[in-house]
Amino acid sequence: MARRGCSLALIFIIMWLLIKAKIDECRRGDVTVTPSRVILLGSTVNISCTLKPRQGCLNASRHNKLILYKFDRRINFHHGHSLSSQVTGLPLGTTLFVCKLACINSDEVQICGAEILVGVAPEQPHNVSCIQNGEQGTVACTWDRGRDTHLYTEYTLQLSGPKNLTWQKQCKDHYCDYLDFGINLTPESPESNFTARVTAVNSLGSSSSFPSTFTFLDIVRPLPPWDIRINFQKASVSRCTVYWRDEGLVMLNRLRYRPSNSRLWNVVNVTKAKGRHDLLDLKPFTEYEFQISSKLHLCKGSWSDWSESLRAQTPEEEPTGMLDVWYMKRHIDYSRQQISLFWKNLSISEARGKILHYEVTLQELTRGKAVTQNITGHTSWSIVIPRTGSWTVAVSAANSKGSSLPTHINITNLCGAGLLAPLQVSANSEGKDGIRVTWQPPRKAPSAVQEYVVEWRELHPTGDTQVPLNWLRSAPYNVSALISENVKPYVCYEIHVYALSGYQGGCSSTLGNSKHEAPLSGPHINAITEEKGSVLISWNSIPVQEQMGCLLQYRIYWKERDSNSQPQFCEIPYRVSQNSHPINSLQPQVTYVLWMTALTAAGESSQGNEREICLQGEDTAALGQAPDRLAHS
User: Is it true that the peptide bond before 35 is cis, omega within 30 degrees of 0?
Assistant: First the structure.
């Protein structure tokens, strides 16, 4: 009881303070607004401020200066006990007016104030739409309010059904455009009509929407399907069934699915599926995303939201397609040769699973029996075989379900038929990082060509056989090919073009690069020797990373020591294996300074190291007597 008494006392004190604040706020006078403190946009109002008796200035009423403020801006004033002002053009919303009294030699004193609310009557609500989420959900409706009234507006939603049933709900918020009745419509009479209507009311007027009529089937939106599963019978992609669970009244489903790396969906509509559907067009060894939505009626109602995604990978299938196989031969001695086989990976659609290994079969045709069978996990394989006999190789790829069809390659001398050699082979830069290779058909037997193979690999002066080999195939009517894969800028490539015809082949070669610059350094002279009146210059090759493309020429410069004359030079066409060259034009008993440069199509390198030489005219001449001097760029 004591607590209850304290609570009542606290409430009484708070109410007394509020009443006192209201009395104190306007104890000196009143502000009246006509015709009303709530007006229609564009209306005019009269605002009057009147002092209560004995609340003016102490001296005389003529000293009373009443001032009317609109917010903080003075809009009117008058000497006396009252002031009246007509106000127009008020904006939408709330405007505060305050009346103050100013006496001589004193601060302004607030008399009273008034808030004027400017708004509009509610527009007719439209687009009334109702929905029930799930068979066990509740009915909720939405509508468009129209323009903002800027006033307190009450919305009433009324739902009428069969047997004179009526439900009603209100919201007292002028931003209201949604109400949930909290009732559940049942499917007992799925075709029974229900009518929803929205009425908006404020102090300036009211308006009602047109009635929205619907049935149970129209507004019940099924819940998304759940518990989605997928089954591949006998681990076969061609026998795939998708399962799911639905609400009991669902008649129509739509299933969408796509590979996980695709943005495009395949969509299937299914009637009376009863929670299962067979898919026949899935690709093997592919991760798919599946989603399902539901609908209660073929023509009425709306689709449910899409279900949560199910991701699943389809089973493997036997590989299709055939490997692209190429090879190279290297003579070891008079009776043996090494065969190196290379092949490209199958595409994802061809592999149809994870490739576990490759099967290689080598056969000598004259004996007619398999000589060697090998299984490897790599994309290359080498073997040493006799140089005699006719050899063929078959290579296939295997996954867990089987092997691809074998690719057969006849081992032949790829450059043995001179009449099949392509003519005028050249290579030029094209595009960002491409090399365009062009050629002319063999002059003697162009119609015999079955296909061209363009092969390229990085050029290494040491002839390193471990450098990766690349190739592409071209139809017999083509006379050019674009190399765009596995090409680096500022790297020189050795390019071969093979013309194949049955068991014969002819080839031509060239060098090419996608981008080039002048070499970063010149060759390093490592030795100078005199041989019968001439000088043999020997040098170290420029490091590959400093060549900056394909080298075209070397230049050997020489001039007399301490001479200001221009140096002489000779040009040597670049050959991969060359690292020495003779000079015959030096005079005996004269000291010369020699150095070298290298050239690409983009320009000349800086000079390499300098060496001095003085020919003695004898085999025991003193050469290179001065130490090397660093070249200046």
Answer: yes
